[in-house]
Every structure is written in C-alpha cells, then in structure tokens.
Amino acid sequence: MKRIIVVGNGMVGYKFCEKFVEKAESGDYKITVFGEEPRPAYDRVHLSEFFENQDAKALEMAPAEWYAEHDIDLVVDERVADINRTSKTITTAKDREFSYDYLVLATGSSPFVPPIKGVEKEGVFVYRTIEDLEGMLQYAAKLKAEKPNARAAVLGGGLLGLEAGKAVMDMGLEPHIVEFAPKLMPRQLDSRSSQVLKLKLESMGLNIHLSKATNQILGNGSITGMEFGEDDMLDVDMLVVSAGIRPRDELARACGLEVGVRGGVVVDNTMKTSDDSIYAIGEIALYNQMIYGLVAPGYDMAAIAVEQILGKTDAMMPQDIDMSTKLKLIGVDVASFGEPFMPASKGHSIIFENKTQHLYKRINVSLDGKKLLGGILVGDANDYSMLHQIYLNGMAIPEDPSQLILPASEGGAILGDVMDLPDEAQVCSCESVTKGQICGVIESGEATDVGDVVSCTKAGTGCGGCKPMVADLTNATLKSLGIEVKDSICEHFDFNRQDLYKIIQVKGYTKFNEVLDNHGNGGHGCEICKPVVASLMATIHADTANKEYAIQDSNDRFLANIQRNGTYSVVPRVPGGEITPDKLIALGEIAKKYDLYTKITGGVRIDLFGATLNQLPLIWKELISHGFESGHAYGKSLRTVKTCVGSTWCRYGMDESVSFGIELENRYRGIRAPHKIKGGVSGCIRECAEARGKDFGLIAVEGGWNLYVGGNGGANPRHAELFAEQIDNETVIKYLDRYLMFYMRTAKPLQRTAAWQEKLEGGLEYLKEVIIDDKLGIAEDLEKEMQTLVNRFECEWTQAVNDPEMMKRFNHFVNSEEEDDNIVFVPMRDQKMPEPWV
Description:
By secondary structure, the protein is α/β, with parallel strands linked by helices. The protein has 26 helices and 38 strands. Strand 34 (696-701) and strand 35 form a beta hairpin. Helix 1 runs parallel beside helix 8 and helix 21 (729-746) packs across helix 24. It holds the Pfam family Fer2_BFD.
C-alpha cells in the first residue's frame, strides 16, 4: 500500500482528496491529511458569508465523517514542522513522525503584512481564517459598546480587501478602504472600470482612499489611526490588513526544495517539485513563474497531481492558465476574462460606460475584428458566461462586435445560444466540467433537472459563477429531447406559476389551502409558494392582501414597508405626481403629528418613515380623510406612473402627459403582478419622465403616443423597447391592458417585465403578434380580465381601518396593548433616523 501525505487541508488540499477517491482503486493507497486549523477544509472563497450567520459548518467543504468514510486520516490542529526527504518522513509540531511514498504540499498562502511601524498594535487583524473573523467580531463588539460611531479601515483595495470591506460594513463599523495604487483591483481592472466601481462602492457607504502609502499605525497599545504623511492621517479604531498573499513555502525551503526568488515551490507541468516524490498544488506552487491565486487553477493542479501519482503520466497542466473570473463584491458584479488589458498594437477595445448606473463594459477584439480576446464587466456581468465561452472557444462574433455589450434596446446583446457551444467548452472551470458532460448526463437519463446535473458533475459547486449557464444548458438539453421542462415553484407544488394561474382561474379557488389540498404535495406551504399563490389570487380575483394576510410577504401583511429598526414607512398614492396644496399641507401635518421622517421618493411621491405598527391604522385613517389611498409601495403591483408637466405648462409639451399619467395610474392601481411595475409618461421627446426606464412608457410625438415596454432601472437597468408608434389614448390603454395581463399570466414569480420580455420565445416581434395582431385569439379575454380588476379595486388601507378584526393584527403584542419600547431614533439633520445597529 502506497502512503500519501497531504500537508494542508484548505480548498485545494480537500480537492486533491476528493479527486483521488474518485480515481483510485480501494486499498492501493492510504492518505493522511494534516491541517493546522482546528476544523476540516472550508470554502474560503465565500468567507465573508460567515458574518451573516457565524455558522462555520455552513462553509465546510465536507464534514470530518466524509474523510472517515473514504478511509482518509484527517489530522486537524496539528502543524507539520519538518520534512526529511532522505527518510521520506514528516514530523509534526507535536513531535509525531509519519512516513510517505508521495508528499503533496498544499499549504497555500498566508496574508502579507507590510513592515509598517506599529502594525503589531491591538485592533490590527488579517483576513484569512474563520478564527481571524471571530477575533474581528469580538473586537468590533467591544468597540461599538464603547464608541457607537467606531471606524474600521481595510489596508488593500484588491479582491480580498473589498471582501474585507464588506465584512467591516456587516459588523456595523464605518468602513474605509486604503489602497496604495491609484485604482481599486489594480490586477483585474483598468482605470475607467476601477473608477466606476469606486463610484458604486462610495454610493453604498464605503469610503475609498487611493494612492495612500501607510507610514505607521498610530495609537498607544491599540490602534487609533493611520498616518500616510505629514498632516495626512485617518482616524480609525480597527484595521484589517489585506495587502496580498505570500506562499507558505517555509517547509519546502527548510528541506531544500527549489523555490522561486519571490517565493513559491517551483513545479513543472506535472506538479512535481525538484523532488520526484513531492508535489505542490495551489497557492504554494510556482508554475510558469507565477502563483495563481484563483480556485480553478488550484483544482486543476490537484487533478493533475492525482493522475500523476496514479501513473497517468500524460496528464499535464496546460501552458496557458485562464485567469478569467466573475465575482460579486459587496453586491456588485465584477468580471474579467481573457486579456482584460491589451495594447493597441494587438487589437481594438470597445467600451460601453454609464456612470449614472455604475456600469462599465469593455471587450477587446482582434485587429481584424473577428476574434474576442478578453474584456472587463463592472455592475452587470450577466453576459460573462457566454462572453467567456466565445473567448475560450474562438467562436465567431458579430460583424459589429459592439453588439456583444450594448444594451438590448440599442441593438446589442447578440450572444447566441448556449447549445451553439462545442461539447468541449468548459462551462465550470472550478470543476473542469464541459458542456458535453452536462448534456451527456441528461441524454443518458442520469439527470433530469439542474439538481441532478450538479450532483452528477459537481458543476456550479465551486465559485458558483457558472450556475446560470448550467441551468440554461440543462433546460435547453431537456427541451431538445422533447422533455417538458417543469419550473416548479417549490417542493409543495409540481407546477410553475403559469400552471397554477390556470388551475386557480378554472377552479375558482379563493383560499390557499384549497389550492394546496387539491393540487399540492402535502405539508403546509412555505415562504415561496404562499406569496405566489396570494399574488395569483389577487391577479385573478382582485383579492386584496387583507383577505388571507397570513400567506403574504411581511410588507403585504402589514400594508407598509418594514424598515431596519422594525418601524414602517407609509406611502400614499399621488397619481401622476400631481398634488394639491391642501393635500401637501395634510401630509406635512400628519408627518409632524406622528414625528415621521419624510422624503420625496424616486417615483415623485412622499414617503413617511418611522411609524410603529400600532400607528399605521391611525395614520391611514387621517390620510384617507384627506382623500389619499394606499400607494401599494409594499406590494408587487403598480407603484407609480411618473409624469412631466407636459402641454399643461411646458412650452415644449406636445400632449397632456399629466392627465394621461393620472388616468393610467388610477386604472392600474392595486393590480397584483409577478413583480412591481412602474410607468412613465413624457409630454415630448425631451423625456423628463424617464419613460424608457419603466415597465411601460409613453412619449408624445406628432400624431399621438409612442409606446415603449419592458424597461426598468435598478440593479440591471434596461431601456424599454419601442412597441407601437403614433397611437391615440384609447389604443394605448387597449395595448397596455393586453400587455400587462399577458405578463401577469405568463411570467415567473418575481420576474420583472424586462427579464420576462427578454426570455420570451420570439421576443418583441412575437409580443407584437400577440398583443397587436391577436395571433393567439386571446386579446378580448385579456381586456376583459383587466377590466374586471379595474372594476373591483378597493383600497386596502380603507378595508383595514373599517374592519375591527383586521385591526387586531396591528398590535405589537398579541396579548397586550403595550407599544414596543425598544425602538430608538437619533437626530439626522432636521429629522431623525433609526439608531445605528450595534
């Protein structure tokens, strides 16, 4: 029996073990794994998620039992202290000796701590292990108890530094990022994309300090600040150092293995070191004179080492390593692939930039315009997977390559179909899973859905960046085999939203339990299916959220948006943004009476924040007496129809945008949909109502209105597409009735009109055939259904205040009339805000 010792039980060390048990014959080898941390391998890529629940088990790659089941001896909390290459033994820090036939070094890297004066002070941390994070949490809790407005800085603006910045935010400290370079993520982003990322992060509350060389850490015993130069200081109470990594090669150096000038154990393309019995994988391995700090190359190295030890000597690492990566940093998409930086002599760069939406897209193409060579995406990386595949496989690109990154409404986003990829296309780089393998397990019958594909191939179990493409490939392959793809909403129903819509409509169900008992899989339902069924019954019967409030989302349940301190905001409807002075005065008096924070919303309404649960009906009652009704800001329903002043006042106005906007908002108020809906009406092409950024928008032109559909702002902004030109008011309403009802009938749960329209087979042209040409013969039905909803509208606030039974749910405690006395506000400018989280 051959003895294999793996030194290091991080992600790559674990992956070696996993690959080995898949390949090796049982009983031929004995593996012993040493890890100096007190737990089995865990997912360091998603380390920041530890702050969400502080559950180390949730990050485990595999439990200790997995090692035992595969006859692997796992030794944790014990460091290997010495390697004797002559006797082929290792000695641990506990003075225990073990012999090996093959030794695999997977010791990874350690954080680089710059030699800054004072860096040893209390309150200075590195960001590497769960123990590091636990220490940070304890120190932050102590800080906030002493100083509620405590600050923390992160030294380093690279990938890990920005992750550490998120950690600082999650701990409730004021976050500062300090970077020596003049831009963030200097190894992955160019100057312009870095600037877009900087603006986005600053808008989220991070303070960014670039071109800062830290001279010393200030403080007497514990950190109080950072000094960059004369009169250039930053007061901070805690510091997280994330300034890069250094290979853990001390064992290799001590036993005489060849190492690089700047660190790392030199390996060839078989992962062998200068000793034929010793392999190095992951961040300790110096291959091509480079340390590769990504998971995917480390996993590939582990697979090659496994093959070599098992005698498959033709298995070798490729000469060129793909460093493409997609990440979500603090909720912001960032991706780069191929050659993100490219000299003008090698090709051309095409750039799309929208700083107002914090979007940046760059692709680099060959001089002849026929090959995609690389690119950078910031703010929206939805197209990363397909762009990456086009680059990897040398696939043809459009004659106008800009169409690969332009918004769809500008004629772009021509990315082809996932089934056009060659079978050898590597979809999951972490696990080296190809398109052919994914399609193969489906075609063979081993897999019948995405979950099966993941189980069979492990695709998507690494960084997770390939999950959308894995799902698309799975569904496309199933359809190609003539198998219906069921998009079930949850485990309680074997139906998608569209199926349930038809069932409820035909059967006339009005209660959740009727649907569950007759068409469900048992159980009591869940937080996914309950709101979906509630929304469907509202869409079909015009039921309000009051009817079965227990199955609603929390905001719908209480007819208001819950805020971070447990209070609620109240948004009355102001159709079209038009409001009388008397109503403005009423809003001001009500806000003053209940001491509410007030703000003009992005949809030109007035939001009243800070109402306690028991105050909601009292506030609604007063608002109703002044002619207001619910604005449904809490619901998946029509929010606002934004208008400019149009021809009523504006000298450029071509039509009465305000009047028509009010008519449309009053028509569609309260209708429940798969997602929130917003509209806009502009009186001329100057577009002051931003109608093309809405789910539906109208722009007045000579001869009538131009109607646009399927746009939205938010995280993935999209321009609405021109649907019909120069139509009158009556035709606009007819088309919108049909469009919105068709959307409500067929969209998935929580799918915006933009995403629905983009995924709709046949796209905009098919939609025109259905809505304008009545291709399916359902136009009249759609209009009747919408008119039914319009006729049945009831204000939910009025329902609640007029029904004593409904009023019972607006008490803080079910068994007491007392109020919640734990809610604390602090001053902000001339108003108030919730006390910061501790």
